[in-house]
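Researcher: Let's try something more involved. This one mixes different molecule types, so please make sure each is placed in the same coordinate frame as the others.
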Amino acid sequence: MAEIALSTAPAHLRHGSNSGQPLTRRDGLLKVTGAARFAADHHPPGLLHAVIAASTIARGRVVSLDLAAAMAHPGVVAVMTPAHKPPLAADPDAKTNPFMFRLDLLQNDRVRYAGQPIAVVIAETLEAATEGAALLAPRYQREPARVGFEDATVFTPPAVGVGSPAEVVVGDVAAELAAARLRIEATYETPAQYHNPIEPHAIVAAWDGEKLSVDTPSQGLAMARARIAGLFGIPAENIEIRSPFLGGGFGCKGMLSGPQVLGIMAARLVGWPVKLVLRREQMFGPVGHRAPSRQTLRLGAEAGGRLRALDHHTLTASSTFDDFFEPASNASHTLYASPALRSAHEAVRLDTGTPLFMRAPGEATGSIALESAIDEMAAACAMDPLAFRLENYAEVEPISGKPFSSKALRECYARGAERFGWTARPLAPGAMRDEAGLLVGWGVGTATFPALMFQGQARAVIRADGTGLIECGAQDMGQGAWTALAQIGADGLGLDLEQVEFRAGSSDLPDAGIAGGSAHTATAGMAIHAAGADAIGRLAALATGDERSALFGAGNAGVIARAGRLYRRDDETRSERYADILARAGLFEIDGRGSGAADPVALARYAMHAHGAVFAEVKIDPEFGQIRVSRLVGAFAAGRLVNPRLVRSQYYGGMIWGVSFALHERAVVDPRSGRVMNANLAEYRVPVNADVPSLEAILVEEEDPHVNALGIKGVGEIAITGSAGAIANAIWHATGRRLRRFPVTLEQVAGVAG
Amino acid sequence: MPQVSLTVNGKRHTVEVETRTLLVELLREKLGLTGTHVGCDTSQCGACVVHVDGTSVKSCTFLAVQADGASVTTIEGLAAADGTLHPMQAAFREHHALQCGFCTPGMVMSAIDLVNSHKERMSEAEIRHGLEGNLCRCTGYHNIVKAVAAAQEVMHGRAQAAE
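Model: All components are placed in one shared frame. Result:
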């Protein structure tokens, strides 16, 4: 792939080691000058433009398309339909692994959700393709759409999330509830949400015989390549996917989507390179979403606030044709100690696109309900909600009984509470007003997210001139892989960051695992760390085995790699430059390989999670119901932080997603047509600058000797959890009303002053 | 097809366009200036903001023919010929006011127009409201406000550039 010219002049001077330094991002210069090339920015010679025609019904069949009208439009080259498309080697509805989802690739005339692609128009210009798609004027045989929980049969799914059991029980929930002095039961609703990265899915595909070249955003390059190979019946090594920069992902670019494959099919059909970019409204259908939920929590406690039972039931929805069940109840597995604990899930099938992983899938959805219910129980016990959480602090993981590999949550509570000024909080709701007469409320929520790892590989090279190279097919969707992973690579090779070339974002590099599950820095980072150690080990073997080297015979004592030299561990006056070792050996370079994956022994022994505490202040206009989050303080402990500057931005982003979950985002589905009525960024509300409060993210130090050798947990998703619940709880504290249908909107709150 | 003559980043162009061609498509597909992005097609996200005769415009809802005779500046035209960044670009980089970077060009262009039209120092709240037409889904808003607050000092001669 073309070299990515990352900045070699960091905006900050740096001393000491690379990891742990708050470096500005290395791709910053490219991004502020417009030089970072995203998928849709490519324009190979002979490029044609493809535009998807999407279904306006949610269920039924396409009866006719006006192909003649579309083809007659000047500039239109072809219309791809079920009757006119290149053959596929595999059924797009077949599944061979749990990360494979069924795709709509024009395999027949069935419509199974609104927004499903029903044809693709390919033309010389975007304008002609767009007009051609409009001229198709499809006619349908329509069937009634199933859009709400009441429209379909409830069943228990075989698994939720990725292979988790639908129900997990510890202890006797019914008996503990019956014996509890205080009980609450409450039902919370969360809506369907759509990822909406600002970069829509886009692809530029070019075939050269049986070889395929693709520019498209991907959070999982190796999986995407395997999917394409399977669908088109070509070897994976014939396919190169470049994805150096994603304009946001949030999960919807984790698995290759149907529209991306349609771009490849279109290029095959016409024999020219094709660009296909989704329009914003097309992001509300075939590229995944967060499923809606109806969650019922039943809690029982002693009068002193000690929990006896926690029962978390989720009703969620998948599509009619595929399985993804939002594992919301599993949010109750790890946070609060309770002798009886149950998580359970049921589901219906609706005429929607298949829901998928969306930033903190299950964790965010379950957290807002759990944190609200915990708050309700605290109120029932007449206890401060933070004191209640501390009373039920889990010393071992409640669902498994395993000890935590590390858990600095107490410190998070303490640091966050102190910074926020929590001790001044009146216990009773509705007790605070500001100088403008607005109702003021304070709420708290606990944040947690599992410390996951996938599997990844990397290659590290030391070159004749003493500089280094790291190759790792990592994906940067904004979190900062170009910077953080390069920092780990430089440390692994004992070099300064400026001396290490870092290659990422392409499928022809070692598979770095997916950028998801907040696991990418740990997974790819461990692979890079191991590859660096391997390369250094080989270099050391050369030196210590060569009697002309100052390090000869140091084999048992060992060597240390630092600043481009190997030092004898027990006598640092003896050292040698990498370049000199290679030169004497007559080598152009020496390389090492490494892989990263979770340690099965640690997995069996420990529960591994990041934790945090979020404190929110809301201000509510008592007449008009306008709700503003005026302050948000989060304190998070997530193991070792490779780059605190990047981490803080991830926390800010997560906290604002929490604001959005609590107050903004909701897809509104028309019950008659099954269409998303607000499929645009005006009415599907995401936060803007003006919605964002004063934010503070406190980085709580945490050493974790078990999670992996680098001590890294994930930071990308945790801050949504806790934040949304803290805001919901602050609304109650401001108004005295428990509002359980999210997002909380002004019409729910209007007139609270009575 | 109509001809459009316009100056983009100081360079004169005369291009044949369809009457329905949008300015953003002219910039991206005909002139190869792909730093200007399309995010929503309907003027909400602001990823496509450029300056037309010095004023910020959402180029996804601005016809190319409307730019006939105009001077257009895109993100590629901000830095000096020697590569010195515009103070707003430098501030975005310095203050980590970007993550995925897709909204960044539009955010930078909007912020420059905002600062240019406010000679007096803007408060944090004024900056937040001034940029409400630009969406960032990574929600880097906190640092974006910091960057704009710093850049306004440099642009109005009250402080030195970040770097």
